[in-house]
Specification:
This protein is α/β, with parallel strands linked by helices. It has helices at residues 3-16, 22-34, 38-43, 51-65, 70-74, 98-110, 127-135, 148-160, 206-209, 225-237, 253-258, and strands at 76-79, 82-85, 117-121, 140-145, 167-171, 186-191, 238-247, 265-271, 277-284. It binds S-adenosylmethionine. Pfam families: Methyltransf_31, PrmC_N.
Length: 285
């Protein structure tokens, strides 16, 4: 079987299994097996796959056909223009979350060189923490997660992007692992904590609910339980004028704003590219 035939076969198989992104998925999996990028696959479409490559490709197609996310099959996902290692221990970084990183970067840049301390709570793959450190060379980021397995992946990503000296990994609950000595000193806190209401987990797409860690999804009764718990900690750690960024789901904006008393926070809700509520931006007064 040559590369052209392999691509056609893969697309047909995935289409048959109702994979919504079958066209690109087959190509990404074939690239993984051959080491060729999209252009390479096109230029070398007559090249014949080895038996081992055919077997590997077929195995990946089968797993994809059963619903396993492509990023777990390839072990990587692009976020903020950077490649991140991912495994089933971490949530696959979503393009929607780039809004949080862009907002944090713009704020920190506007503050000048003094703005150099950040914390990222529920860091998962480290997508947010590592991106911030990558694009702001003077920034020190504390990256926290409850899951040691997730932190191991975040550590790999920090090394991959050469920011491991400025990304401090801390295992624990919410902002608790951060030393009280840092009270009132952080410029930014980012948090993409689980925010899906418990009752909605069962209705999620199979590739999310059957493959991604539930520790990264379940946000309790209305989805905002963890944010409620961590807000007082965030207030104490931020310096006055510091920025808190929390990712939320569509329809959670009003409830999220209610958690932020006006005497403490100046808050607004930002929409994502699809005009859905996505980000709480709260400045500590
Ligand atoms: C929605 S994922 C976000 C991952 C990553 N920040 C991203 O944007 O791709 C939430 C993360 O929060 C972590 N987490 C859940 N409960 C936590 C807690 N109480 N304290 C710290 N981290 C927690 C999960 O392990 C998971 O990695």
């Amino acid at each position: 079987m040559n590369l052209r035939q392999a691509l056609t076969l893969g697309r047909e198989l995935l289409k048959l299994h109702n994979s919504p992104s079958y066209f690109i998925d087959a190509q990404v999996l074939l690239s993984k097996v051959t080491g060729l990028d999209r252009t390479g696959l096109l230029l070398k479409e007559e090249v014949v796959l080895t038996d081992e490559q055919q077997q590997q490709y077929k195995n990946l197609l089968d797993r994809r056909a059963w619903g396993e996310p492509v990023a777990y099959l390839t072990g990587s996902k692009e976020f903020m223009g950077l490649d991140f290692v991912v495994s089933p221990a971490v949530l696959i970084p979503r393009p929607d979350t780039e809004l949080m990183v862009e907002t944090a970067l713009a704020f920190l840049q506007s503050q000048g060189e003094g703005a150099c301390l950040a914390a990222d709570v529920g860091t998962g793959s480290g997508a947010i923490a590592v991106s911030l450190a990558n694009y702001l060379p003077g920034l020190q980021v504390y990256a926290i997660d409850l899951s040691p397995d997730a932190l191991a992946i975040a550590g790999q990503n920090a090394i991959l992007h050469q920011v491991d000296r400025r990304v401090t990994l801390l295992q624990g609950n919410l902002l608790q692992p951060i030393s009280l000595e840092l009270s009132g000193r952080l410029n930014v806190i980012t948090a993409n904590l689980p925010y899906i209401p418990s009752g909605e987990i069962a209705g999620l797409m199979s590739d999310v609910k059957d493959y991604e860690p539930h520790l990264a999804l379940d946000g309790g009764c209305d989805g905002l339980d963890l944010y409620r718990l961590f807000l007082p900690q965030a207030y104490n750690l931020l310096k006055p004028g510091g920025l808190l960024l929390m990712e939320i789901g569509p329809g959670q904006g009003e409830a999220a704003k209610k958690m932020l008393p006006e005497e403490r926070w100046q808050a607004e809700i930002k929409l994502d590219l699809a005009c859905r509520e996505r980000l709480v931006v709260a400045q500590r007064k």
